[in-house]
Amino acid sequence: MKLITHNMLTSKCLKGVVTGYPLAISATNIKVTEVDFNPDFIVRIIPKIDWEVFWKAADSIGHSDGLPQTVESKLHDNNDFLKKVHRVLLEVEIDEGHLTCPESGRQFPITKGIPNMLLTEAENKFAMLLKSANDLYHEVFAPMPRQI
Amino acid sequence: MSKRPEHQAPPELFYNEEEARKYTQNSRIIDIQAQMTERCIELLLLPEETSCLLLDIGCGSGLSGAVLEENGHMWMGIDISEAMLDVALEREIEGDLVLADMGQGVPFRAGSFDGAVSVSAVQWLFNADKKSHKPVKRLYQFFSSLYASLSRSARAVFQFYPENESQMELLTSQAMKAGFYGGVVIDYPNSAKAKKFFLVLMTGGSAPLPKALGTESGEESNLQVMYARREASKRARGKPLKNTKAWLLEKKERRRKQGKETRPDTKYTGRKRSGRF
Ligand SMILES: C[S@@+](CC[C@H](N)C(=O)[O-])C[C@H]1O[C@@H](n2cnc3c(N)ncnc32)[C@H](O)[C@@H]1O
């Protein structure tokens, strides 16, 4: 998982969770893969990045060196800055570890660089709404022993 | 004719290791997926010469993603099948992958993407693979979370395989309910082989749908246009708006004609009741 993905990813599909953002990173293995440098893309993506979240995420995995804590538009012409952003945003990858939902504490494992965001039906915010009245009826009444 | 994959097993089981490999090595499939992805990109109407951030829904082993890369875009993909994503990793795709079920909602924050594509995946949402699955709700859940994850004026384009007309209506209606404008574009509607369905969804206001390929000039192959026309003709026939006084009077008149018991019209008919009683 690249930090650009981390910057967009949420656990808001969990029941009882409002924003589910940002997810905390615990990394046991980090790798760096080379990606073609495209300065135009970086310039375009910067306004969409939640910079504070990006900087803290980079810092939490030891990759914030040389990355300014705030971003100013004059930096957009600075090639070294764009290269640095490119590296941390697109080349650094969490290979193994997990993400933690800031509201519920639910953990999402990351294996082979892929975060597993699958929820059980009971965890899904909307699954409960999907229960038909019939299902609910059985859940409420079926467990009761029929004694009388 | 062979059975549709969606009728055989849930997607995470159907696309197992063996199927994922078979699928990704089939040169005919590779070609077709590539062609359909190219068409999706065309229908996205992205700003020219700009590399965008796109979401690939049901990205599988990255056949569609590879085409996004070739077109200079960065992408993220979600898929429910681990086996398909494993093959994507082996193929060293550039996109970033997330294991997720689109029917549970798209797990990204608001305004993340410049556009979304989905190639041969969304028909899986018509299945009810678990007891609690309700296709209509999963579709709505999917579309509304997708709507939120797109930036303003972004589009989402889905190539899909509808089984029948009602699936197409269901898909379109749930997308509209979630806030999208748009409809289905049918390329080569008269060719059994080349016929392709694309659901084109727009976020920022209604714009005319792109023209379908392989249609005679003037011929209609654009379902959205068909739906829109149906509504317009309703209005043209002079049907009054629902819950207005005119609507109520007309309804009562109809009931009388049918011989049903109906209260006489008075000056109070169709008025708001005062909260007093
Ligand atoms: C025919 S493949 C297409 C893959 C890729 N888009 C391509 O063009 O080659 C359909 C994909 O949809 C995925 N899929 C089906 N249902 C899904 C769901 N509910 N959520 C996410 N992905 C799903 C399957 O796992 C499979 O990888």
From TrEMBL, chain A:
One of the GO biological process terms: tRNA methylation
Family, per entry: Belongs to the TRM112 family.
Protein name, per record: Multifunctional methyltransferase subunit TRM112-like protein
SUPFAM superfamilies the record matches: Trm112p-like (SSF158997)
A molecular-function term among this protein's GO annotations: protein heterodimerization activity
Native source species: Leptidea sinapis
Pfam families cross-referenced by the UniProt entry: Trm112p
UniProtKB/TrEMBL annotation, chain B:
GO molecular function: rRNA (guanine) methyltransferase activity
Annotated region (Disordered), positions in chain: 231-277
Domain named 18S rRNA (guanine(1575)-N(7))-methyltransferase Bud23 C-terminal: residues: 201-274
Summary of the function given for this chain in its UniProt record: S-adenosyl-L-methionine-dependent methyltransferase that specifically methylates the N(7) position of a guanine in 18S rRNA. Requires the methyltransferase adapter protein TRM112 for full rRNA methyltransferase activity. Involved in the pre-rRNA processing steps leading to small-subunit rRNA production independently of its RNA-modifying catalytic activity. Important for biogenesis end export of the 40S ribosomal subunit independent on its methyltransferase activity. Locus-specific steroid receptor coactivator.
Catalytic activity: a guanosine in 18S rRNA + S-adenosyl-L-methionine = an N(7)-methylguanosine in 18S rRNA + S-adenosyl-L-homocysteine
Bias kind Basic and acidic residues: ranges: 259-268
Keywords: Cytoplasm, Methyltransferase, Nucleus, S-adenosyl-L-methionine, Transferase
Principal location class: cytoplasm
Protein name: 18S rRNA (guanine-N(7))-methyltransferase
GO cellular component terms, A-Z: cytoplasm; nucleolus
Cell cycle in keyword set: no
GO biological process terms held by the UniProt record: rRNA (guanine-N7)-methylation
Keyword Methyltransferase carried by entry: yes
Family under the similarity heading: Belongs to the class I-like SAM-binding methyltransferase superfamily. BUD23/WBSCR22 family.
Organism (species): Leptidea sinapis
Residue ranges occupied by any Methyltransferase type domain in the UniProt entry: 55-130
Subunit structure comment from the entry: Heterodimer with TRMT112; this heterodimerization is necessary for the metabolic stability and activity of the catalytic subunit BUD23. Interacts with GRIP1.
